[in-house]
Amino acid sequence: MRVCYLLGYPVGHSMSAVMHNAAFEELGLEYRYNLRGVSPAKLGTFMTGEMRDQAVGGANVTIPHKVAVMEYLDEVDREALAIGAVNTIVNQDGSLKGYNTDGRGAIRALEDAYGELEDVKAVIVGAGGAARAIGYHLSTKARRITILNRTQSRAEELAAHLSSMPDCNASVEPASLRRSLLEEALKKADILINTTPVGMIPDVEGTPVDGSLIRPEILVFDTVYNPLRTRLLREAEEAGARTLSGLRMLVYQGAAAFKLWTGVEPPVELMYDAVTEVLGGEQG
Ligand SMILES: NC(=O)c1ccc[n+]([C@@H]2O[C@H](COP(=O)([O-])OP(=O)(O)OC[C@H]3O[C@@H](n4cnc5c(N)ncnc54)[C@H](OP(=O)(O)O)[C@@H]3O)[C@@H](O)[C@H]2O)c1
Predict the structure, then answer these.
(1) Which residues, 6 or more positions from 143, have their beta carbon under 8 angstroms from its beta carbon?
(2) Which positions are annotated as active-site residues?
């Protein structure tokens, strides 16, 4: 039996164990997914010791370790290096390699919902880890990306970083998260992506974008998946826009990690149904 961990601090609220254990069981694989809370002070000891044990197949990495964990890895995949964060680790005979599956998961979810992303104009709200991962992949396809963030300097830093990437095809513009700037950016957008935690439980009445700014022509993607229908998505629906919750992204980034650990294609729809059931049965 091998174990895969969710490595974070704290880790009590995760849906990853639900979907991975359902998939391991369905395929009859000798794997188990466990939550593993490791404090920042104990990260080094864990990474140089237990994480390299033969019984450990790998890990997902979440807040606050996605960047800090990189210094303990033997190798970091090219995309994860470009994103600057790792969300998946594979343990191969005691050697640890880091990957980032968040961005690919998000792009796969967006392509399911929107279609081809070549030449789209996207607005990303937020400039943290999720925005970096999504922005990295989206910038290879989109025509224009506007990044609006509460702290303007982080939007500027991310826009400059994405623009400097050799595979970047988009013109990437930073802005601060102000109503007038959002309104301007959304007038020209095909897709709006929320990468902030605003609207996530317990702040379910929060929204990063006023519903009156949403046009019916756009697709609104909220990376938050708990609740499945955030206030942002409810108001987008009321405005006549198409919506996508963070659940597909969660499942697709998890499916990519599963494949890296086991070498086996996971049962994606079963994983999706397992999490949907726990989150209250409403499809996202
Ligand atoms: N569906 C999935 O699989 C998946 C995967 C990863 C993440 N996510 C979602 O993405 C969210 C962010 O994760 P992350 O790793 O990117 O976090 P992060 O690195 O901490 O970044 C958080 C971002 O949200 C902004 N923000 C936080 N609180 C805000 C507020 N009250 N008003 C406006 N902006 C605010 C921050 O702005 P400042 O720079 O001004 O602080 C920052 O840009 C998570 O909460 C989760 O819901 C979903």
Answers:
(1) 119, 120, 121, 169, 170, 171
(2) 66
Q: What is the pLDDT of residues 52-85, one digit of tens each?
A: 999 999 999 999 999 999 999 999 999 999 999 9
Q: Architecture of 103-244 per CATH?
A: 3-Layer(aba) Sandwich (3.40)
> What ligand 1 atom has the least distance to the C-alpha of 196?
24
pLDDT in tens, 21-46: 999 999 999 999 999 999 999 999 99
Q: CB of 2 within 8 A of CB of 29? A: no
Percentages helix, strand, coil for the chain, rounded to the nearest 5?
A: 40, 20, 40
**Pocket residues for ligand 1 (CB within 6 Å)?**
102, 126-131, 149-151, 154, 177, 195-198, 200, 208, 223-225, 246, 249-250, 253
pTM score over 0.90: yes
CATH (residue range 2-100+248-278)? 3.40.50.10860
Separation of alpha carbons 9 and 19, rounded Å? 20
Taking the centre of ligand 1 as the mean of its atom positions, its distance from the CA of residue 218, in whole angstroms, is 21
> Best of 195, 243, 258 to mutate for ligand 1, by most ligand atoms within 8 A of CB?
195
Domain ranges of the chain: 2-100+248-278, 103-244
